[in-house]
Each structure stands twice: as structure tokens, then as C-alpha cells.
Amino acid sequence: METTINLQDLLTTIRKRWFLILSFTVFAGVTATIISYYVLTPIYQSETQILINQKSTNIEQYQWVQNNEADLRLINTYNIIITSPIILSKVIEKLDLDQTPNSLAEQITVTSANNSQVVNLVVIDNEASMAVKISNTLAEVFQNEIPLLMNVDNIKILSEAKLVDNPTPIKPNKLLNITIAAVIGLMLGTILAFLLDFLDTRFKSEQEVEEILGLPIIGLVGAIGLEKETKKSKKSDRVRGS
User: Fold this and answer.
1) What average pLDDT does this structure show over 16-42?
2) What is the pLDDT of residue 206?
3) Sheet holding 44-52, edge to edge
4) Where are the membrane-spanning stretches (predicted)?
């Protein structure tokens, strides 16, 4: 019985303050929409894949295995060299970028799957075309410089980044932002509604009086028609005045 009463109280509060809850939800959703579409800078991503292996194919099986294992060990070293200033400075010079190697390195992520000779060069930028240019130029510069740096020639560009007609930014996730903001607004509005109802100490029903005071109700006083009495007195005053 107590649970039913509490549930009824909750539903009553929600019904009574539904406009407040709705206002918070709509306000949060609209604010997130404006920020996501007109304030936050879209970030685009491009990816170029390079393959690390020995160029010679006319080798015996055991020698191929040894070369393959050596290539896998070199990948960690290559991952560091790719984002080193000696490579990135040439990328900046080639593309005439107005930034430092350190700032450019923050836009680049180098990944490779376990026991895989394929290295992914992932670049983010606020312009889709520039992300593609940096990604492909980085792979090209690395391919040209690695023979000079390590006296090996085992880099091949496997897949170049392509610029699509209508690129989709990876962030912000507009729909997700709006949904999260609306949920937060709904929660805040609901919490505020219950808080206002909790702080309202007025008696709202006869049952509340009985529960709080522990006394039975023996009678009710209806609303007195003061408005009608006031109109009658004003009317009689006009008659007297006339």
C-alpha cells in the first residue's frame, strides 16, 4: 500500500510539473543542437595503409620466415620514425603547412594489428581534403626517407587515402550529443520538479492532513464566493449613488 501511494505521489508530481520537465528537456536539446551544428569544429579522418616487407620474392621458405619476423620487429621502430620531426618536417615543407612537427604529430595515429605487416596511418584535420593530403604525403615521405635512414627498402604504399564527395566528420557526433543533452535535461527537470514539490510544505489534500496530524477530518469548508459578494456590493453602491 505504501509503495502504491509513493508511486501515485511521483506520478502526481510529474503531471503537475510536466511543463517544467519538458522545458528543461527541450532547452538542453536545442542548446546541444546549436553547439553541435554551429559552434563545434567538425573533425575529418583519412587513412593510408603501408606494407612492410622485403622486395625480393625469389627466396627460400626459411629465409622468407626470417625476413618476415624481422619486418614485424621493425614495425615498432617504424611507428616511432613516422611521427618523428625528421619525417614530419618534410611533410610540412612539402604541403606548406603553418604548424610545427609536434602539433602535426598530434593529428597522426599509427596503428598495426598483431602479427600484421600492414601499418595504418590515420590523420585527423578540420578539413577533409587536408587530412587526405597529409596522410598520403606522410606515407610518400616515409617511403622515400626510410632507405636513407635505415638502409632498407621494404616499404610499399598499399592503399592511399581518397577524398569522397560528401565526407562525414568523425566528430562531433551530433545525434549523440543531442540525445545525451536531452536525457540530461530530462533528468535535471525531473529532479527540480521533485525538489520543488518536496520544499512545498502546504497541505495539498485531506489525506495529507490526516497523515501528518494524525487526526480525523470531521468537516470541510468550501470556497467562499467572495467574488460574487464583491460584485453585489459594488452594484448596490452604484444604485445608492444614482
Assistant:
1) 93
2) 63
3) 108-112, 118-125, 44-52, 155-159
4) 18-40, 175-196, 208-226
DSSP 96: T
- Which residues have CB under 8 Å from 123's CB, separation 6+? 45, 46, 47, 48, 107, 108, 109, 131, 134, 135, 138, 161
Pair type for strands 108-112 and 118-125: antiparallel
The string of DSSP codes covering 128-178 is HHHHHHHHHHHHHHHHHHHHHHHS---EEEEE-----SSPPPSB--HHHHH
Tell me the HSE value of 85 on the side-chain side, using a 13 A CA sphere.
4
Query: What is the pLDDT of the chain when averaged over all its residues?
Result: 81
Residue ranges in 39-127 assigned as alpha helix (H): 61-82, 85-95, 101-105
For residues 55 and 10, what is the distance between their CA atoms, to the nearest angstrom? 73
pLDDT digits (tens, 9 = 90+) for 30-86: 999 999 999 999 999 999 999 887 554 444 444 544 555 665 667 778 888 999 999
Omega before residue 172 within 30° of 0, cis: yes
Nearest to 141 by CA among 127, 125, 129, 157: 157
- The whole-number average pLDDT for the span 84-100 is 94
